[in-house]
Amino acid sequence: MSALTVRDVTKQFGSAEVLTGINLDIASGEFTVLVGPSGCGKSTLLNIIAGLERQTTGTIEIGGRVVNDVPPKDRDIAMVFQSYALYPSMTVRQNITFGMECRNVPRAQRNEAVARVAKLLQIEAMLDRKPAQLSGGQRQRVAMGRALVRDPLLFLFDEPLSNLDAQLRTEMRMEIKQLHQRLGSTIVYVTHDQIEAMTLATRIAVMRQGVVLQFDDPETVYNRPANLFVARFMGAPPMNTLSARLEATSDGTVAVIGGGETVIRFPVPAAAASWIGRQVVLGIRPECIAEPTRYFGDAPGATVMIAALVEVIEPTGAETIVVLRIGDERALARVSPDLHYRLGETARFAADTRKINLFDPETGDRIA
Amino acid sequence: MSETAAARRPKVFGLVRRLPEHLTIWLPLLLAAGHIVSFSLWTLWVSFTPSTLLPEFGWVGLHNYTAVLATRNWRIAFDNLLLFGSAFVVLSLLTGLGLAILLDQRIRGENVLRSIFLYPMAVSFVVTGTVWSWLLNPGVGVQKFVNDFGWMSFRFDWLINRDMAIWTIVMAAVWQSAGFGMALFLAGLRSVDTDLIKAAQIDGAGPFRLYRRVILPTLWPITVTVVVIQLQFAITTFDLVRALTGGGPGIATLLPALVVYDFMFQRGLLGRGAAAAVLMLLTLLAVLLPYAAWRHVQARQAARA
Amino acid sequence: MRDTTFTPGRILIYLAVWSLAAAWLVPLAVVMLNSVRTAEEIVQTSMIGWPEHWAWDNYRTAWADFCVAQTCAGIRPYMLNSALVSIPATIISTVFGAVAGYAVSLWRFPGDRWIYGVVTLGLFLPQQMRLLPWTIVLRDVGLINTLTGLVLIHSIQGLSFTTLFCRNYYIAIPRELIGAARIDGAGFFRIFRRIVLPLSPPILIVTVIWQFTHIWNEFLYGVTFTTGQQQPVTAALIALSAAVADVPQHGVQSAAVMIAALPTLLVYLLGGRYFVRGLTAGAVK
């Protein structure tokens, strides 16, 4: 069943169009992440789904019901806000039950619900405290508790982890994922953090300037980005994007990068054949360039050995990032920390050509 | 047709259900905004009519304005306003700034001192004007006090001196509102970035140079605000003069607000009074419009930065 | 950073600031002392002097016996008038200003910016521009020379300040809080009552102090729209000065002035912090 359908939604603030023709269809139980840089319209879209803002045109359906004219309280949703939006004058318990108070739910039933949620989130000890007396992580839990207690059709999360420090963020991320797996709820989650998107989502919608650029499962978004923006936005360090020229050889189509002494030839999918003789942008993830002993599978032409100049070496502990120069182009490689390259030497690397993407240099769209 | 009606019903229903909400929002706001607009237009309209004791229809063009501008009362009042306004604004600004700088020196009892300099703001101009009228009265005030000490030739009779009486109003007004400037300047001084002060001290700036070159330049937006608010006060001053000099001696300390009152309620010349009120408003606008423009430009620049 | 030891420079600063403070206190000290001196004593010496015998009786006379115009009931009835105008007008303008400030800061409705802009213009519009229309309005609704008329005027005009104060305070409340409450099912009034109002005491204190002080101290409307027994105390003080111009009663007059100034002075002493906040908030419009 479709839990949420967003159909042709646009939003204008004055003359500025902040959302353009948004279409999303989200099934029940899905964890959808809206990700994009700040100002891309993701929070506006979430607010429109919640009913806190009104779309200029288009339709929102929740659980098969058109809710364009339905106020937020009747949309059967719950929302967790970036600032948590805990009512400062109420205790944790009152915060969690305020929605039930508004709906005149009997007291006994309220207490029962609070007990259930408090146990689930391990906040029993702080039910009678005020938000000001809680730490950031505890506030986050209370905000989740307030959403969970409603047991709604749809959960909306607006950057819920961005106010936490790095360590706590990782912990809470895991907890949110576990909660989703346990409760099987439908979640729409907004973030600007692509790692959160990758780790949490069953499907990711990448947005930029009011447009959904790609709406796919995390693996597809990561390995087959729809365009250069998605390619560079998802993944850290980002995908290498190198200017290349397609040529036909007896072994099939190849992409030629660099010039003069350092020329690299990568075999590319046959789908790109129509671009032979033209300039393209070749995308290859840093983890697809590694030390020469790395094994990238048996397929013929899967691994190509290349030689390149070592420009910068950045050890991170778990791996070492090496900046390479290939002709006029620069690329990042993720190599084993046990290898010790020297600055300025021309070294050999193994490249995984199975995950190469080609993009149109004019439009940025993916070719193959 | 029936479909549109059905679609429209929830909206109409919602409006009715939310009626108390709309009433509480709109009624006070409309009353407040409505009386401001309509009263201004009303007074403006009356200023173009031949109204005397009661508002009358009819149109006399700018006659009331030329008549008001030609009266000796208005000319004296306006000259007084120029003198009083500039003297009062400059003196209260300097006093306020001086007090703020003194209080900014980490001195003990700052809170008590601040309360002392600000208490006149809590008291009615009628009260303070009355008290100042006693103190400045040569018969019972400061002059008599000094005379009684044996300095018989001491004279401090500005209150009954046509040329100096306006300065008694300046004095009382500065005393009453210097604390206001002090409060704003002190807040400004306290919000100066401490890193800036540290940097200047490392550069070797002494306290005098620190204030003149580093701290005071950051205060000029506050200065503009203080000047505008004090000017606004000066232009509309009424109570203080009524209590302190009553406009006298003779009409030596008339101010525009007293002229308006005199025309409207003592001479029963509503048209003239309205014209004088509009002239007051224009004087005020001459101050406020440039200020609003300046604020607008500032906001623009801040937005661009 | 700045030293707190007593160097000659700092002694000079202390000397300067405390002598200025003393000068600022002179009018208050003079009127306090004179309020317990007899008229004869004041005329013989001057307004500046220590009471020889303490004439506490001045206060009783000023409060209940003194003659203003034709009536001899002291300033008690006028104090009562001022209270009957200031208190209701303060409450009404604060309550409606708070709701209006809440509406314009945290909700969007058609025309909100426009109407708020006009309301704030009221901060600058001189009273002289409204005198004449108020005269006619009060006369037509039969409220001229009544306290209710003054309450009406101050309630409506006060809205400019109260709305501005509350709006500037409420604008700092995160919009997300309102969003959360709307999703929880709370409406306009419930959000105000349960979420906004509990956050409001500081600004309500500022607003109440500001309004009360202003209305209590107001003179022009009082003297224009009321006469005789209906006047507020500020207008009565002027009438009193005029009445005794020939035979000054400085002792009793000082006592009357002290009584008239006492309510706002007390409010200032008790809520000085909030009073200053109102002053500075009003300045940054």
Describe this structure in words.
The complex is a heterotrimer of chains A (368), B (305) and C (285). With 368 residues, chain A is α+β, with helices and mostly antiparallel strands. Chain A has helices at 42-50, 92-102, 107-121, 136-148, 166-183, 194-200, 218-223, 228-233; strands spanning 2-13, 16-27, 31-35, 57-62, 65-66, 77-80, 154-158, 187-191, 203-208, 211-216, 240-249, 252-259, 262-267, 279-284, 289-290, 303-315, 320-326, 329-335, 346-352, 357-359. Chain A folds into two domains: 2-233, P-loop containing nucleotide triphosphate hydrolases (Rossmann fold, 3-Layer(aba) Sandwich), CATH 3.40.50.300; 240-359, Nucleic acid-binding proteins (OB fold (Dihydrolipoamide Acetyltransferase, E2P)), CATH 2.40.50. Helices cover 23% and strands 36% of the residues of chain A. In chain A, strand 11 (240-249) and strand 12 (252-259) form a beta hairpin. Chain B is built from 14 helices and no strands. Chain B has helices at residues 2-17, 19-46, 63-70, 72-103, 110-118, 125-135, 142-148, 165-190, 194-202, 207-215, 220-236, 239-244, 256-266, 270-304. Chain B starts with a helix and ends with a helix. Chain C has 14 helices and no strands. Chains in contact: A-C, B-C.
| Total strands of chain A | 20
CATH class annotation of the largest domain in chain A: Alpha Beta
What level of helicity do the residues of chain C show? over 70%
Radius of gyration of chain A: 25 Å
According to CATH, the fold-level topology of the largest domain in chain C is: MetI-like fold
The CATH class of the largest domain in chain C, by name, is Mainly Alpha
Set down the secondary structure blueprint.
The complex is a heterotrimer of chains A (368), B (305) and C (285).
Chain A: E1 2-13, E2 16-27, E3 31-35, H1 42-50, E4 57-62, E5 65-66, E6 77-80, H2 92-102, H3 107-121, H4 136-148, E7 154-158, H5 166-183, E8 187-191, H6 194-200, E9 203-208, E10 211-216, H7 218-223, H8 228-233, E11 240-249, E12 252-259, E13 262-267, E14 279-284, E15 289-290, E16 303-315, E17 320-326, E18 329-335, E19 346-352, E20 357-359
Parallel strand pairs in A: 3-8, 3-9, 6-7, 7-8
Antiparallel strand pairs in A: 1-2, 1-4, 4-5, 9-10, 11-12, 11-14, 12-13, 14-20, 15-19, 16-17, 16-19, 17-18
Chain B: H1 2-17, H2 19-46, H3 63-70, H4 72-103, H5 110-118, H6 125-135, H7 142-148, H8 165-190, H9 194-202, H10 207-215, H11 220-236, H12 239-244, H13 256-266, H14 270-304
Helix pairs in contact in B: 2-14, 3-14, 4-8, 4-11, 6-8, 8-11, 11-14, 13-14
Chain C: H1 8-34, H2 39-44, H3 57-65, H4 76-106, H5 112-121, H6 128-140, H7 147-170, H8 175-183, H9 188-196, H10 201-217, H11 220-225, H12 233-243, H13 250-270, H14 272-283
Helix pairs in contact in C: 1-13, 3-13, 4-7, 4-10, 5-7, 7-10, 10-13, 10-14, 12-13
